[in-house]
Design a protein that fits this description.
With 151 residues, this protein is mainly beta. It contains one helix and eight strands, in the order H-E-E-E-E-E-E-E-E.
């Protein structure tokens, strides 16, 4: 019990100092997106969305990101930062021969983010390779663009 209380305290303390962002993603999937910075080089992000790709249905994913993998300078503007990550994706399938099943597997995104400070917004674009391991083994590519408000 004490170890779980310590872990919870550390997460609350870290999140109080971390930058977070909430917004929307459009594409496949389309829905709500969030990101929380863990430190200057890493963050976690996730989405609750609807997928219309290979499997259509409720899409939920969570990903650990390595931020600032590469930074591109833009004249008279802030930098565009590249990130990559590794996480998991679940889709509650609502059509076809697997209607009612859950597709699950790892996902590996590669994306770009551009942040502006007034207002505190970030624009992002991402391609994510996903490997469904259930109900069938299959490869899928998700693509989306979005905007999040940073706080």
């Amino acid at each position: 019990m004490t170890a779980s209380m310590l872990a919870l305290s550390l997460m609350i303390t870290n999140s109080a100092q971390a930058e977070s962002a909430l917004g929307v993603v459009l594409g496949d999937p389309t829905g709500f997106s969030g990101r929380t910075s863990l430190d200057g080089q890493h963050s976690v992000e996730g989405a609750i969305a609807y997928s219309t790709g290979h499997h259509s249905g409720l899409h939920v994913h969570g990903t650990y990101l390595w931020d600032r993998a590469r930074v591109f300078s833009v004249e008279r503007s802030g930098p565009i930062e590249m990130y990559y990550g590794l996480g998991v994706r679940l889709i509650s399938i609502n059509s076809g021969k697997h209607d009612g099943d859950i597709a699950i597997g790892p996902r590996a995104p590669l994306g770009l983010v551009y942040k502006i400070n007034n207002p505190n917004l970030e624009f992002f674009g991402e391609l994510s390779l996903a490997l469904d391991v259930a109900p069938d083994t299959d490869v899928d590519l998700d693509a989306g663009i979005g905007i999040r408000i940073r706080f």
